[in-house]
Each structure stands twice: as C-alpha cells, then as structure tokens.
Specification:
Elements: E1 19-24, E2 29-34, E3 42-45, H1 47-58
Antiparallel strand pairs: 1-2, 2-3
C-alpha cells in the first residue's frame, strides 16, 4: 500500500500555513490536515461532503457579512 499523496492549493505558493488534502481509501474518504503538523490529526469527509464544502466556498457561502 502506498502512502497518500497530500496536496495543497496552487494558490498557497510556498507558504507554510496551509491545509493539505488527500483522497484516501480509493477515493472513498477525503482527508484534510494542517501542513505544519503532518503527523497531527486529520479531519475526514465523504466525497459528497467535500464537494458540498467546495461548492459553498466557491459560492461565497462562508464569506463574512
């Protein structure tokens, strides 16, 4: 079994303060972690939950008033 391939947004550039994402268990789980603490905790989402979060972010759902 190979290690997960973690990646961060291309908008992050070389910044260290980012979140990283990996598709785990054959794409059945989306893992999110702090890039500064790769051995720390990870938050797991279903692909549908992750897609809903991304759609909300794109639509400004999480923007401050």
């Amino acid at each position: 079994m190979s290690s997960p391939q973690w990646f961060k947004s291309s908008y992050s550039g070389n910044q260290a303060d980012c979140v990283e994402v990996a598709f785990l268990d054959g794409g059945q789980v989306v893992g999110v972690r702090d890039s500064k603490n790769p051995t720390g905790p990870m938050v797991a989402f279903t692909p549908a939950e992750w897609d809903a979060f991304l759609a909300g972010a794109r639509d400004g759902e999480f923007s401050q008033p």
